[in-house]
Amino acid sequence: MRISRVDFKNVVELYTKAIPSVARIEKSKTDEVVLTESGQEILKLRKKLAEIPEVREELVSKIKEKILSGEYQIDVEKLAAKLKEWGEF
């Protein structure tokens, strides 16, 4: 293949124009994560779960007050049934 001076100039111009455009495309690329519908649902549920406190302080305070005042009564039959359900016995 023979490249004349004029052709060489055109080839150089083409390369110099092409290189910046490729560089621009690479700069504009960003990482992107696309979740499936079920993945989005799981993410929503995790966010809702994170909003729920691990310890319900209000309930714990009420029970503590009842214990201290002697009002809290343990239903032994119900407790035994729950323990049996969990397989502790």
UniProtKB/TrEMBL annotation:
It comes from the Bacteria. InterPro entries: Anti-sigma-28_factor_FlgM_sf (IPR035890), FlgM (IPR007412), FlgM_C (IPR031316). Pfam families: FlgM. The keyword Transcription applies. Signal peptide: none annotated. One of its GO terms (biological process) is negative regulation of DNA-templated transcription. Keywords: Bacterial flagellum biogenesis, Cell projection, Cilium, Flagellum, Repressor, Transcription, Transcription regulation. Coiled coil: none annotated. Belongs to the FlgM family. NCBIfam families: FlgM_jcvi. This is Negative regulator of flagellin synthesis. It comes from Carboxydothermus pertinax.
